[in-house]
Amino acid sequence: MSTTATETDRQFEQVMAECRAIFDKKLRDYGASWRMLRPQSLTDQLLIKARRIRSLEIKRESLVGEGIRPEFIALVNYGLVGVIQVERGFADTVDMGADEALALYDHYAAEALGLMQRKNHDYDEAWRQMRVSSYTDFILTKIERVKEIEDNGGRTAVSEGVVSNYMDIINYAVFGAIKLGGH
Fold first, then answer.
1. How far is the C-alpha of 43 from the C-alpha of 28, rounded, in Å?
2. What is the pTM of this model?
3. H or E element at residue 151
4. In angstroms, rounded to a whole number, what is the distance separating the alpha carbons of residues 183 and 157?
5. Nearest to residue 75, comparing CAs of 123, 14, 142, 151?
6. For the segment 10-67, what is each residue's pLDDT rounded down to a tens digit?
7. Taking Cα atoms as reference points, which of 14, 32, 35 lies closest to residue 24?
8. CA–CA distance from 8 to each of 11, 42, 69, 111, 146 (Å)?
9. Phi-psi category of residue 62: left, alpha or beta, with phi > 0 → left and psi -120 to 50 → alpha
10. What distance in Å separates the CA atoms of residue 1 and residue 67, rounded to the nearest whole number?
11. CA angle at 15 for the pair 62 and 78, rounded to the nearest 5°
């Protein structure tokens, strides 16, 4: 493994730990209330976050006072919640405690890390030369793909499914958070 790849792993894990800490605190505040969200609602939540990032990138001003990096963190967490919801199905009530939610979060976060490592190997750290705004555009594209798949009842002819797109969204959002620093 190259020194750069090792640094990427460290940075990725550091951002993921930051995301997990926020996820854990929100679990303590709200419980796993997100279990009631259908996958389409989570996709729309991802859309809201990504559109806000794009808006802030273009306008270069936030009237709410929160910047772009926290939105990338939110994309990571909502992306992982989305994967959980696709894999487990949504519920009509909150049907899991914080420990189970964190275990699932950790499981899928580890899968996202593994995916990033494989792709990073094949793409030779290309993300480091990309602009943060490109991550935003790619995330928005992935969200549109997910919406199409959802609208088609989950059927695809040759394309990756919803979970693969969520995983890519998570990884692009981590790269955005790394590039924007602050951790």
1. 23
2. 0.91
3. helix 132-151
4. 41
5. 142
6. 998 999 999 999 999 999 999 999 999 998 999 999 999 999 999 999 987 766 667 8
7. 32
8. 5, 28, 18, 16, 27
9. beta
10. 34
11. 65
